[in-house]
């Protein structure tokens, strides 16, 4: 911007220096190098006072500065106290460099350069104190007075007499005092070409609040200062080529290519964009969390590159799912995941709310961008274009938000797949988007697309892994015969949180329940897959009613056959509510805790530890433990009690203490343990917790008879069942119970070689019917034709019973079935 009359141009070469809270240089522009001498590498990190030494005030003749020396400062032009006073022109800068001012300062100083005292320069300077979260505490702008028309004396410094009596002084004024004030404000970030987006925006806001830098003249003219980075070298080289062509035609030597030190405008623009892209790349991708990544991408471009940034992703990307191959079409749903803008708060919220999903019609630039995968530039949104774009938003009129703005739509893609796109809008006061902006936006989108794709793939893989693990973790019934069960599972806190911890319960003959907790070594999909294999094997072998020690032996052999890396710990227990006992075996697992109902005392069970599953060659031992009704058994994995840097004994002691804490319910008891242990710092492993409250089964709820292996005993068995159910008040299941018991006893009598047939009924929420004989052959379901005499018994049992099963015993086999019981009303 030019001044009036004899005033020089207000666009001047500026040195930009930023000083941190320690008084050291944190930013040193190319203009600072030209003005003061040191290169950026030598300047950054050094004390600012060493690089900007104050040698005195102007003039040097020892006379007091007059109004012409001080410049035409007026108190109402300066925001804050008037700094330019008697004897403070040079020392104001010195005080500012020392961080002793809290208000803007400006002045004129004679500084020594690295070339020696006879090369002092006359410098105009502006100093802005900075506040905020960043390390910057002072912004210094400086200009060589010789560039503003002042003459030079014999020593190279400014000669006041050669300016025809006119003095130039730096000052401050609100930028709103000038025509095109908003344009000046938007141009102010050019003074900080390599600052970060947030730092630049914060500093510019403070500069505008404290006062726009101006040049003041003795006749009270004021001109706002804007940066001048020199003449574009493209223009110089074009002129050089023309002159070189004329020289060649005339047969004379070609002129030298100009190598002016002035910054090339084109070079500065390219460098600024590269620095911007580099900065954005450093700011995004700090997390694999998709939501956080989206916010990082949106905030990285506002306000430095654009004023509005709306981000849209395919719904499947947001959900962490896969999506069909091929380009999107007009039916593809796009989810608005972020919207950043510099407009007044709430202006966009009602019209284009975050979280909305919508398709985009074919005629829109958004559809063109998402189908071609290329940026779409709309330099200016006219009324007509804005109306066409707004038509897709139905009842909401977005024209006031987009009309008369410049728009750039850039695709977010990775591996040639369009994941989404960003709609960038600039206010009409800012320069229109151009081809260089389109290239910058495309590069920005490419980098952001890769980061988003990484987050998407992580989210997708995590979802797959968690789904796999959830499918492998059982849904345990809270009530089993004679006991109540509660469980908890917590995923690990490491990347790839899927682990190999599991728990399970299996219903066994004789109203018994098998309880298991295991921990596969390692994390990730391999551990989860191995956990699924071992859990399935445990269920299968438990259904065969193997003793705990034998089951662990078989499981260890299986792990060795599956592979040498199959290692896991396992704790297996069988609870018999009728006998009131536990049978336990351990394979390298942490011991369980038993909480006695009689006195509330808790203790770790002293079990033979054994070796982990998969080691091989180590025996496993079973331990029998008597329990009373109300006793609780707590089984967990080491992720709950083990914390890095802490002895595991501390965690086990805490487990005992928290397990003994009184609780209103089993779920409350589990929550108490989790709060006491899982909240400690340093937990990274996943956690499986299983708690059992052993209620037992009263003798009056069990009826048992011994029958001879004779066909006549079948009718006797039905009569016994009928009388017992009448005594228990379970007449509602009398018919079904007589029928299934008759079929089971008939099979036992027919196939038993010798010995009696045992019949047992157990009342425990359901009615359990068991028949034991001396034949080791397990019965199976089979088809029966119209003329077949046998083969229908087990089909009748399977149809009437809620569940049924068979298992071998030491003397033969047991066939059992479970009937649902309708509780009497009242």
Brief overview:
By secondary structure, the chain is of the alpha+beta class. It has 5 domains: 11-227, PAS domain (Beta-Lactamase, 2-Layer Sandwich); 233-261; 269-463, 2-Layer Sandwich (Beta-Lactamase), CATH 3.30.450; 475-694, PPM-type phosphatase domain (Phosphatase 2c, domain 1); 699-819, 2-Layer Sandwich (Heat Shock Protein 90).
SS strand fraction: 25-35%
| Tally of domains | 5
> Can you list the strand order of the major beta sheet?
15-14-13-18-17-16
Number of helix segments? 23
Rg calc: 42 Å
Give an account of the 3D structure.
The chain has 826 residues and is α+β, with helices and mostly antiparallel strands. Helix 9 packs parallel to helix 15 and helix 21 packs antiparallel against helix 22. The chain has 23 helices and 34 strands. The N terminus is likely disordered. The chain folds into five domains: 217 residues, Beta-Lactamase (2-Layer Sandwich), CATH 3.30.450.20; 29 residues; 195 residues, Beta-Lactamase (2-Layer Sandwich), CATH 3.30.450.40; 220 residues, PPM-type phosphatase domain (Phosphatase 2c, domain 1); 121 residues, Heat Shock Protein 90, CATH 3.30.565.10. The N and C termini lie far apart (94 Å). Strands 15-14-13-18-17-16 form a six-stranded antiparallel sheet, with helices on both faces. A six-stranded antiparallel sheet has the order 19-20-29-28-25-26. The protein is elongated, with a radius of gyration of 42 Å.
């Amino acid at each position: 911007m030019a001044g009036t009359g004899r005033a020089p141009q207000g666009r001047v070469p500026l040195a930009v220096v930023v000083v941190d809270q320690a008084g050291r240089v944190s930013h040193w522009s190319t203009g600072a190098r030209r003005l003061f001498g040191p290169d950026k590498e030598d300047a950054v990190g050094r004390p600012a006072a060493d690089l900007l030494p104050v040698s005195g005030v102007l003039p040097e003749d020892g006379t007091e500065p007059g109004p012409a020396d001080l410049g035409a400062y007026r108190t109402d032009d300066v925001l804050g106290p008037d700094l330019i006073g008697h004897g403070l022109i040079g020392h104001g800068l010195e005080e500012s460099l020392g961080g002793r001012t809290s208000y803007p300062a400006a002045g004129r100083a004679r500084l020594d350069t690295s070339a020696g005292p006879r090369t002092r320069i006359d410098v105009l300077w502006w100093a802005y104190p900075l506040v905020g979260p960043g390390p910057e505490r002072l912004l210094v702008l400086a200009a060589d007075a010789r560039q503003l028309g002042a003459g030079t004396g014999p020593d190279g410094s400014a000669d006041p007499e050669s300016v025809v009596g006119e003095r130039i002084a730096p000052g401050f004024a609100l930028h709103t005092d000038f025509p095109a004030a908003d344009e000046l404000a938007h141009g102010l970030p050019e003074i900080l070409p390599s600052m970060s987006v947030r730092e630049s925006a914060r500093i510019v806001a403070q500069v505008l609040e404290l006062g726009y830098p101006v040049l003041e003249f003795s006749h009270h003219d004021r001109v706002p200062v804007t940066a001048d980075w020199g003449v574009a070298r493209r223009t110089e080289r074009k002129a050089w080529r023309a002159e070189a062509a004329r020289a060649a035609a005339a047969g004379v030597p070609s002129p030298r290519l100009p190598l002016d030190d002035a910054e090339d405008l084109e070079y500065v623009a390219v460098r600024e964009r590269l620095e911007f892209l580099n900065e954005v790349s450093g700011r995004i991708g700090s997390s694999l969390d998709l939501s956080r990544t989206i916010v990082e991408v949106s905030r990285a471009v506002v306000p430095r590159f654009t004023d509005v940034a709306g981000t849209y992703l395919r719904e499947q990307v947001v959900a962490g799912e896969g999506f069909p191959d091929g380009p999107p079409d007009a039916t593809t749903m796009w989810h608005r995941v972020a919207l950043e803008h510099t407009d007044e708060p709430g202006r966009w919220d009602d019209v284009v709310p975050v979280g909305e999903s919508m398709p985009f019609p074919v005629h829109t630039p958004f559809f063109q961008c998402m189908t071609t995968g290329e940026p779409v530039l709309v330099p200016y949104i006219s009324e007509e274009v804005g109306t066409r774009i707004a038509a897709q938003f139905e009842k909401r009129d977005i024209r006031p938000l987009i009309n008369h703005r410049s728009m750039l739509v850039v695709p977010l893609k990775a591996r040639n797949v369009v994941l989404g796109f960003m709609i960038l809008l600039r206010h009409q006061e800012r320069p229109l988007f151009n081809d260089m902006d389109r290239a910058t936006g495309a590069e920005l989108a490419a980098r952001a697309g890769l980061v988003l794709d990484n987050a998407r793939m992580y989210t997708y893989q995590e979802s797959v892994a968690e789904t796999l693990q959830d499918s492998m973790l059982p849904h345990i019934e809270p009530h089993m015969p004679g006991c109540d069960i509660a469980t908890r599972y917590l995923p690990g806190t490491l990347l790839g949180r899927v682990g190999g911890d599991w728990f399970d319960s299996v219903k066994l003959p004789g109203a018994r329940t098998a309880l298991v907790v295991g921990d596969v070594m390692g994390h990730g999909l391999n551990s989860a897959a191995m956990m699924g294999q071992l859990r399935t094997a445990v269920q299968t072998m438990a259904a065969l009613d193997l003793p705990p020690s034998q089951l662990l032996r078989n499981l260890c052999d299986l792990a060795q056959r599956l592979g040498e890396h199959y290692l896991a710990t396992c704790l297996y227990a069988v609870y018999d509510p009728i006998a009131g006992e536990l049978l336990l075996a351990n394979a390298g697992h942490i011991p369980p805790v038993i909480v006695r109902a009689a006195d509330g005392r808790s203790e770790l069970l002293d079990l033979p530890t054994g070796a982990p599953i998969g080691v091989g060659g180590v025996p496993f031992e079973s331990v029998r433990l008597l329990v009373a009704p109300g006793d609780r058994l707590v089984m967990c994995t080491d992720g709950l009690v083990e914390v890095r840097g802490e002895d595991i004994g501390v965690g086990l002691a805490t487990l005992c203490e928290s397990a003994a804490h009184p609780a209103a319910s089993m779920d409350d008891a589990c929550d108490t343990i989790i709060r006491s242990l899982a909240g400690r710092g340093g937990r990274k492993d996943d956690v499986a917790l299983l708690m059992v409250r052993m209620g037992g089964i009263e003798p009056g709820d069990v009826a048992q008879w011994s029958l001879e292996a004779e066909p006549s005993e079948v009718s006797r068995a039905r009569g016994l069942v009928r009388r017992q159910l009448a005594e228990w008040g379970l007449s509602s299941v009398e018919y079904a119970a007589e029928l299934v018991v008759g079929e089971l006893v008939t099979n036992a009598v027919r196939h038993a070689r010798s010995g009696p047939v045992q019949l047992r009924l157990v009342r425990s929420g359901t009615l359990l019917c068991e028949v034991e004989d001396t034949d080791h052959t397990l019965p199976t379901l089979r088809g029966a034709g119209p003329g077949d005499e046998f083969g229908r018994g087990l089909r009748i049992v399977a149809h009437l019973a809620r569940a049924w099963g068979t298992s071998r015993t030491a003397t033969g086999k047991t066939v059992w079935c479970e009937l649902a019981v309708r509780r009497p009303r009242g």
